[in-house]
Design brief:
Largest sheet: 6 strands, parallel
Structural class: alpha/beta
Helix content: 25-40%
Shape: elongated
CATH class of the largest domain: Alpha Beta
Strand content: 15-25%
CATH topology of the largest domain: Rossmann fold
């Protein structure tokens, strides 16, 4: 019979005291690196995840669901920025809203954690030890940590295309139609606005979502006979407003003809680009078209309003909770569930369109 591993098992196998195991998770900096790595390796092998009440991941319900996502805070944004927090609601905030709404319907609370640099391992363990089910955005948590957690609790992966041979293919998974959405938007720029010189701006980190969007961009260009490179025109370190502004400046200063459209992998960068282009005295869309991806609330409020691809992020959060609850209640069993949610293209002023109803990606 399977028994839940305890702190005693980890301590015995690691050759350390129970207090040392506790410090590894509570104050990892207080434990020698070699000892810390040995304890964590044993914990992974045994499938041990600590609980806030020192009972591990026992079978009793906590009445709480968890969400872990990256810290998307823009380190370059000044604290005195005129944009208020409500206006700059980001992708993760919308997922949280959807999860909270659905969790409340089912009588659950939601525990949220941003995975900051310098200690995601202990953070994830702490969150997982306090919840009945766990949702995590793609590339936030190390694969080996999710493997441990998923042995004891249902886990739903949010975003990021499911790839063949992925070690986490056994987890439930929700994503949006990234490639189709970017294809539809790029096709609109080419066919409806007659644009031929398009520059795609992505991220240096190999984000599966952004790579899918770039595939959609390239496919639309190839189908229309528009020259397109194998790599984005520019890759940035972080997809923030400050980086978007720098990207716009860099593209404007490159030798040769300026691109007719700057196609950004997310809305934050696109909004930053609008500010940079305004400082340069360039009109959008008169001199250059700008588009984004995500559909954050700020995309509607900037001037000109941003043409973008709207993700159903609130629904994504709701669907994550529904999946977790079905697993917890036994209503869903067997093979992993993979959901693909549709996106819509919002055609607005930054591409030269009047405001009109959003159109679904086909």
């Amino acid at each position: 019979m399977n028994t839940t591993p305890t702190v005693y098992d980890v301590a015995e196998r690691s050759g350390v005291s129970i207090a040392t195991v506790s410090r590894v998770y509570r104050t990892p900096g207080s434990v020698r690196a070699s000892t810390r790595e040995r304890v964590l390796a044993v914990a992974r092998e045994l499938g041990y995840v600590p609980s806030g009440s020192a009972r591990g991941l026992a079978s009793r319900s906590t009445g709480v669901l968890g969400l872990c996502f990256p810290d998307y805070a823009d380190p370059d944004a000044a604290p005195t920025d005129a944009d208020d927090d409500d206006a700059t609601t980001l992708y993760s905030d919308q997922i949280i809203r959807g999860m909270e709404r659905a969790a409340r319907r089912h009588g659950y609370a939601l525990l949220i954690a941003a995975s900051l640099q310098g200690g995601p391992e202990s953070l994830v363990a702490k969150v997982a030890g306090r919840v009945d089910g766990f949702a995590v955005t793609a590339r936030t948590v190390p694969t080996e940590e999710l493997e441990v957690i998923s042995r004891r609790r249902p886990v739903v992966m949010l975003a990021g295309p499911r790839e063949g041979g992925d070690a986490l293919d056994h987890l439930d998974h929700i994503e949006v139609a990234n490639e189709e959405g970017q294809w539809e938007l790029t096709r609109h720029l080419i066919e409806d606005h007659g644009l031929r010189r398009l520059a795609y701006v992505g991220t240096a980190e190999r984000s599966p979502d952004v790579e899918a969007r770039f595939r959609g961009f390239r496919r639309a260009c190839r189908e229309a006979g528009v020259a397109v490179a194998a790599e984005p025109a520019l890759r940035v370190g972080m997809m923030t407003r400050a980086q978007g502004a720098r990207a716009a400046d860099a593209l404007c200063e490159r030798a040769g003809e300026r691109p007719e459209a700057f196609v950004f992998a997310n809305d934050q960068m696109a909004v930053g680009a609008l500010s940079a282009l305004e400082r340069r005295g360039l009109a959008v869309p008169g001199d250059v078209v700008v588009t984004g991806f995500d559909g954050i609330p700020l995309s509607r409020l900037v001037r000109p309003a941003l043409t973008t691809v709207r993700q159903p992020t609130v629904r994504m959060g709701e669907e994550a909770v529904e999946l977790l609850v079905r697993r917890l209640t036994g209503a869903q069993s067997g093979d992993p569930v993979s959901l693909m949610l549709p996106v819509t293209v919002a055609r607005r002023e930054s591409c030269g369109c009047d405001t009109r109803p959003d159109t679904p990606a086909r």
